[in-house]
Amino acid sequence: MPNQGTNRYIVHATGDGTALAEFIAGLPSQPAIRLVEVIGPHDRPHTAVIETDAATALQLQENFRHSNKLMIEPDRPLSLFQ
């Protein structure tokens, strides 16, 4: 369950995953972001689920837009009938 004021987001690589691995490695220095789960092969993850506040997510989105290597989106439950 997310902490009050935070939501879960999906961060995924648009390329080979090197940028995502670097992003994950840098998370210990980002106290506003909590890594929830890494998806993909251990040596080449393609997706990370993070928990953070909306302002931090917006800042990440702006940073990612400039690099074109990562994307972030809200983590939404999947439903068979949407």
UniProtKB/TrEMBL annotation:
Say which domain of life the source belongs to: Bacteria
User: What's the protein name?
Assistant: Uncharacterized protein
Source organism of the structure: Massilia horti
